[in-house]
Design brief:
The complex is a heterodimer of chains A (about 400) and B (about 180). Chain A contains 16 helices and nine strands. In chain A, about 55% of the residues lie in helices and about 10% in strands. Chain A folds into two domains: about 170 residues, Rossmann fold (3-Layer(aba) Sandwich); about 210 residues, Dehydroquinate synthase-like, alpha domain (Up-down Bundle). The longest helix of chain A is centred in the middle third of the chain and has 23 residues. Chain A is α/β, with parallel strands linked by helices and about 400 residues long. Chain B has a single domain, classed as SCP2 sterol-binding domain (Nonspecific Lipid-transfer Protein, Chain A). Chain B is built from seven helices and five strands; from the N terminus they run H-H-E-E-E-E-H-H-E-H-H-H. A five-stranded mixed β-sheet of chain B has the order 3-2-1-4-5. Chain B is globular, with a radius of gyration of 16 Å. Classes of the chains: A alpha/beta (about 400), B alpha+beta (about 180). At the A-B interface, strand 5 of A face helix 4, strand 5 and helix 5 of B.
Chain lengths: ~400, ~180
């Protein structure tokens, strides 16, 4: 069925593949910048990943004027302010973020402050507040899951007030996302699995939720195909450079897809469970994905879209061998099989009980919070408290 | 002015009149349903007392605004407040507002189609959307309401008829009193 109306926007230059990092000096100079500030976290720097970036830049005569390597997993306005001060005092003229979701969101916040001026990031919270382009900004993802390098949003916690500040503007998008297989080569198996399932969920929800559109669909199916073809290969051979690059590209493609067509109930549940039980986001996605798809299907939604997804999920032979009326169920079964394989390889939990961090008595609170999550609006099937609780109980064990 | 231009202008004026009237009806109906329906008061219970919600068509209306009372009911404000409301759902264009308020496009679909913008806490916007959906289920015939909401809720017919009648009566009374006031 054709989509009556849609919007699609992604102006980020994607620089992907072998020796991609070595393109950074040229791209900086193309934007008139030569004094980058590198923002990362201790784990990424400790793993030596920032060395690849600084090395690639120094060979072309570009030196980082400063490096901030203390971004915490849940970033805050205080951290953003501290890094903005470093940017100003070091005389930097651009930002390179090297890390996962927290580093990228923090760097987006820093770019707002150093471009707009002042020390109060809260002034720029909300949608569409920013009215002009920011400083040159590059993102080098070190996980293959969040897709933050191509999303026009950021979340920064104001710990003094106990609130999370949302920022939404096309000006938050980086000038370039640099996808280099060296940056994900040393990811531990359980993080490789959880982040890939995060990307798979982005793509699946983008394809099955209310704001789906033909351009997002193309990115989503491409991402799913890459994950299906490469995730288990990489789990079995973590040094598979080509496979790592495919997963990293899939993450970016899924990011482009969901930032233009939004996500649904899997994310509502994941956000709530993450906030209440402090489970990693990717793990929550992997955990809830089949249960929510089954719920939507039980409400008579997404059958056609899920049936189409069987092709990128399971390949042409399985697709052709499955009767048309059973393809949606087979797609969900394929996702379940993938989760089983991941459980065998790295014990990625399949149920809330297996996480060991969620109490069954917490489920009503999670359901309550999920109902107020923004992404629930885009889920194809309506869900009230009892229905959300029922999905959570299904996911329990 | 060509005939085509006259037709377009007349259509635009009709749409503006329809949207302006419907905004008044929806705003007043929300006040009315919040006074009699416990579910709506549960939805608004998390908003602070004095919380102001508005829905407006860009760039300069029409729209409506409501303020939350201490008992969780909502009070219709006869004029859009001068100070910034705590939560505003903006509809990007009069044509989009017409589609939404003539139930050609559900609220969820309108969000998915980027017809609307939220200025304020998203979780509160989700709650207000739930309240709007419940209102539509009460005041619209089932066939029409099914177009306006994702899933038509299970409301017993007597409850729908009684609540719906009360809401319409209250809205009509308010509109008539306003006309008398301005006469």
């Amino acid at each position: 069925m054709s989509k009556g109306f849609y919007e699609f926007f992604c102006p980020v230059k994607v620089i992907a593949g072998e020796a991609a990092l070595e393109h950074i000096p040229f791209e900086l100079s193309a934007l008139g910048a030569s004094k980058p500030l590198l923002i990362t976290d201790k784990g990424v720097r400790g793993a030596g990943l920032t060395d690849h970036v600084t090395g690639a830049c120094e060979e072309s005569g570009v030196t980082m004027v400063a490096v901030y390597d203390d971004v915490p997993p849940d970033s805050s306005t205080d951290v953003v302010r501290e890094i903005a001060e470093l940017y100003r005092s070091s005389g930097a003229d651009s930002i390179i973020a090297v890390g996962g979701g927290s580093v990228i969101d923090t760097s987006k916040g820093v770019n707002v402050l150093v471009s707009e001026g002042g020390t109060d990031i809260a002034k720029y919270a909300g949608a569409g507040v920013l009215k002009r382009p920011l400083k040159p900004f590059f993102v080098v993802p070190t996980t293959a899951g969040t897709g933050s390098e191509v999303t026009a949003v950021a979340i920064v916690a104001d710990k003094t007030k106990g609130v999370k500040l949302p920022f939404g503007s096309p000006f938050l998008l980086p000038n370039a996302a640099v996808i280099d297989p060296r940056m994900t080569l040393t990811l531990p198996p359980h993080i490789t699995a959880a982040t890939a399932m995060d990307a798979l969920t982005h793509a699946t929800e983008a394809f099955t939720c209310l704001a789906k559109n033909p351009l997002s669909d193309a990115y989503a199916t491409g991402a799913i195909r890459k994950i299906s073809d490469n995730l288990l290969k990489v789990m079995d051979n973590p040094k598979d450079v080509e496979g790592r690059l495919e997963l990293a590209q899939a993450s970016t493609m899924a990011g482009i897809a969901f930032s233009n067509s939004m996500v649904g109930l899997v994310h509502s549940l994941g956000h709530a469970t993450g906030a209440i039980c402090h489970l990693p986001h990717g793990m929550c996605m992997s955990l809830f994905l089949p249960y929510v798809l089954e719920y939507n299907l039980s409400k008579g939604e997404s059958r056609e879209a899920l049936a189409e997804l069987l092709l990128p999920l399971a390949g042409a032979e399985v697709y052709a061998a499955t009767p048309e009326g059973q393809r949606a169920e087979k797609a969900i079964a394929t996702i379940r099989d993938l989760r089983e394989e991941l459980y065998d390889r790295c014990k990625l939990p399949r149920t809330l009980e297996e996480t060991g961090k969620v109490g069954r008595d917490q489920l009503p609170r999670i359901a309550d919070m999920a109902l107020d999550d923004g992404s629930i609006m885009f889920n194809p099937a309506e869900a009230d408290f009892d229905e959300v609780l029922s999905v959570l109980n299904q996911a329990w064990n | 002015m060509s005939l085509q231009q006259i037709k377009l202008q007349a259509m635009s004026q009709s749409k503006r009149l329809y949207v302006t009237t419907m905004m008044q009806v929806v705003g007043r109906a929300l006040q009315s349903i919040s006074e009699q329906d416990e579910e709506i008061r549960k939805i608004t219970s998390v908003f602070p007392v004095g919380f102001v919600f508005s829905m407006q068509v860009l760039p300069e209306g029409p729209g409506f605004a409501l303020r939350k009372n201490a008992d969780n009911s909502l009070a219709f404000l006869s004029e859009l407040p001068e100070e910034k409301p705590d939560l505003t759902i903006y509809i990007k264009h009069l044509e989009h507002a017409f589609r939404i308020l003539s139930f050609q496009e559900s609220t969820a679909k309108a969000f998915a189609n980027d017809r609307m913008l939220v200025d304020g806490d998203i979780s509160y916007a989700i709650r207000m959307t739930r309240a709007l959906n419940r209102l539509e289920a009460f005041i619209l015939p089932k066939l029409v309401a099914q177009l306006a909401v994702k899933e038509y809720p299970d409301i017993p017919l007597p409850e729908k008829v009684i609540h719906g009648a009360r809401i319409y009566l209250r809205v009509a009374t308010n509109l008539i009193s306003q006309q008398v006031k301005f006469a």
